[in-house]
Amino acid sequence: MGKQLHIVMFPWIAMGHMTPFLHLSNKLAERGHKITFFLPNKAKQQLQHSVLYPSLITLHPITIPHVHPLPLGTETASDIHLHLTGHLATALDLTRPEVESLIKGLTPKPHFIFYDFAYWVTEIATELGIKSVHYNVVCAASLAIALVPDRNVPRDRPLTMEDNAQPPPGYPSSNVVFRGSEARHMLLLGMEFGSGLTFYERITTAMKLSDAIAIRTCREVEGNFCDYMSAQYNKPVFLTGPVLPDIDDNIPLEAQWAEWLGRFEPGTVLFCAFGSQFILEKDQFQELVLGFEMTKLPFLLALKPPSGCASIEEALPEGFKERVGERGVVHSGWVQQPLILAHPSVGCFVNHCGFGSMWESLMAASQIVMVPQLGDQILNTRLMAEELKVGVEVEKAENGWVSKESLCNTINLVMDQGSEVGCLVRKNHAKWRQIMVNQGFMSGYFDTFVKDLEMIMGT
Ligand SMILES: O=c1ccn([C@@H]2O[C@H](COP(=O)(O)OP(=O)(O)O[C@H]3O[C@H](CO)[C@@H](O)[C@H](O)[C@H]3O)[C@@H](O)[C@H]2O)c(=O)[nH]1
Asked: Any keyword Repressor (predicted)?
């Protein structure tokens, strides 16, 4: 090993950001590097068990100041409704004096600060002679389409759908784009996101001020988008690869799922999960579960109760349980997604194509059906369905509604052994999976990433 690096991690205070920053920390610590990770106290309690190298990784709590109108005690995005998130960004900015004094007190002096939303840490870093790396945990395509200097986001008026219809000049794909009313997902760019900045201003400023941009992706899948980012910001773009946590062989799949999945033939069960964030409306939830019922295949759905419902039981359509019997399970708790995907009975993974699930689906053997909800998930889905052609996106109505027929037909399309589309995506997926699971693929990325860091350290 080369020199031991000391790296400060300061991610946006949302689980969807802190978790992948912690996976990255574990990989760096595995190679002997030291990590100081700043995060709110409650998140520290939640994430402590995921620290694999406690002698090298220190989770350091920071105090999130109260900002009106956030509820008292708010510490992370999970504590609040989406529309309040801008105020949480203001609270993040108010941690600056504490963060500054903590960084100044660290020994040995850190070599790097990794951050995403707290653009101002670069000023602290520059003053202390520390390099700053803007680490991105979403796909390069979503950065390239929305968060580059060449995208025009006017300051003097709200964004319109017309502003968003076209990707920025030189954007390298005509497939990985928003279609029709999906452009509404870009309206967020012009909205205030803490301390009087728009979301666009916050993130592009954060990237402009960095010494390097790092992205949790790989060149094979997103090389053209990474090159575009590098040209737009005129700085190096380093890739970490997917950085998926290793499966711990000592922790088996929970007995209830191992037993239930074990009842079915290999490759026949549908598994569905929509990540940690999104909550469906009740009518859409019911329509989707009816779509699974229509397939006549066994299914395990790990879904949150829809909005306005305290439990899954309360949300299920009338007579659903009696009709599907033992063939279908709708579970509202957390399941071990990677272990379920590794089970031989699972034949199809119906998912929202969050960035974590996207990589996990590529590494799994099952067919892939995608029902994206949020902006980056739509672009991930286009990447998978249109560029790599490894899965199929469920067709939606213009208002975003997914009908039971549409879901059922798409599942049948990939599960039917004779279907042309099913064969094509199976073949392409097998090819990509082979690349990803190849010994040395992930570690190769990581070795290069560490070398990249060492290279800019001396500049
Ligand atoms: O019951 C569950 C549900 C999820 N997971 C795991 O949780 C992670 C979920 O991550 P992801 O697929 O990225 O979904 P979200 O948590 O919804 O991701 C948020 O963060 C991502 C970036 O990190 C964005 O791409 C998404 O749009 C955003 O919703 C994955 O590793 C899953 O294996 C489980 O283990 N069990």
From this structure: no
Single-letter residue type at 415: M
| Token output for 174 | 């005509």
Cα 277 to middle of ligand 1, angstroms: 8
Q: Which long-range contacts (CB under 8 A, 24 or more apart) does 179-182 make?
A: 180/398, 181/398, 181/399, 181/400, 182/375, 182/378
Closest residue by Cα to atom 28, ligand 1, is 354
Supply the DSSP string of 144-192, one letter for each residue: HHHSSTTS---SSS---HHHHHSPPTT-S-SSSS--GGGGGGGGGGGSB
* Nearest residue (CA) to ligand 1, atom 4: 275
Q: Tell me the Cα Rg of the chain.
A: 22
Which of 276, 335, 351 has most ligand 1 atoms within 8 Å of CB, for mutation? 276
Per the CB < 8 A criterion, the answer to whether 54 and 23 are in contact is no
The verdict on domain 6-246+439-457 having CATH code 2.60.120.10 is no
C-beta of 356 in contact with ligand 1 (< 6 A): yes
pLDDT at position 156 is 77
Instruction: For ligand 1, say whether the CB of 392 is within 6 Å of any of its atoms.
Output: no
Which atom in ligand 1 lies closest to the alpha carbon of residue 334? 1
Q: How many Å apart are CA 149 and CA 232, to the nearest integer? A: 7
Q: Are 186 and 177 in contact (CB under 8 A)?
A: no
Q: Which amino acid is at 372?
A: P
> 10-residue block means of pLDDT along the chain (459 residues)?
91 95 97 98 96 97 98 94 94 98 98 98 98 98 97 81 85 95 89 95 98 97 98 98 88 97 98 91 98 98 95 97 97 93 97 96 97 96 98 95 98 96 98 93 95 89
What is the pTM assigned to this prediction? 0.94
| Cβ of 224 below 6 Å from ligand 1 | no
Q: How far apart are CA 220 and CA 229, in angstroms?
A: 16
Q: What is the largest CA-CA distance in the chain?
A: 67
The CATH homologous superfamily to which domain 255-437 belongs is Glycogen Phosphorylase B; (3.40.50.2000)
From residue 257, how far is each of 251, 269, 298, 319, 329 by CA, in Å? 13, 12, 13, 24, 10
Looking at the chain, the domain(s) classified CATH 3.40.50.2000 span 6-246+439-457, 255-437
Q: Name residue 382's amino acid.
A: R
Q: Is any ligand 1 atom within 6 A of the Cβ of residue 338?
A: yes
| Distance set, CA 35 to CA 31, 57, 376, 391 (Å) | 11, 5, 28, 37
ipTM exceeding cut-off 0.95 for this assembly:
yes
Sign of the CA dihedral 192, 195, 199, 201?
positive
**CB-side neighbour CA atoms (13 Å) of 67:** 20
